[in-house]
Amino acid sequence: MQFRTIDTKNDRDTIITFRRDSFMVSYGSDEGLGDEDAYVLLIEERVRKFPEGLVLVEEVGKIIGQIELQIRNYEGRDIGYVNLFYLIPEFRGKGYGLKLLEYAENFFRKYLVNEYHLKVSPTNVRALRFYEKYGLKKLKEEKQKNVAWRMIKELETTIC
């Protein structure tokens, strides 16, 4: 498995497709997805800040997933934040998700943050079970365009 920084010019269609599918899986529709061009510009900006945090996942030359990670401020402290974990359907439930999670946790440790957060739809039971299995806990329910649970995991920041 390899991780490579997103190149918005060459990967535009892929990242838009993956984002749309993530909305479908999470919320049952792509309503609230927003403007594609604005999303691509946001990814370009984040790649400049965290090139190793915005990556496509490849297995045997095939793009199978995407990760979007960043460091952001939350209630006066820096935290790691997962904007997106995505795997194409045929790679779900086969251990690849754990590899994405490990990549993310190593990224956050590099930035010496003590915790990371992500949001997940409460109807995405498969994702909820996965996150809970690997130590994330529900922090609170939030509502923007859709209801989501903010989940948290505290990290040891010692780099091995």
Automatic annotation (TrEMBL):
A molecular function (GO) term: acyltransferase activity
SUPFAM superfamilies per record: Acyl-CoA N-acyltransferases (Nat) (SSF55729)
Stored InterPro entries: Acyl_CoA_acyltransferase, GNAT_dom, YpeA/RimI_acetyltransf
Domain N-acetyltransferase: 1-156
Pfam hit, one: Acetyltransf_1
UniProtKB keywords: Acyltransferase, Transferase
Protein name stated in the entry: GNAT family N-acetyltransferase
Organism: Paenibacillus solisilvae
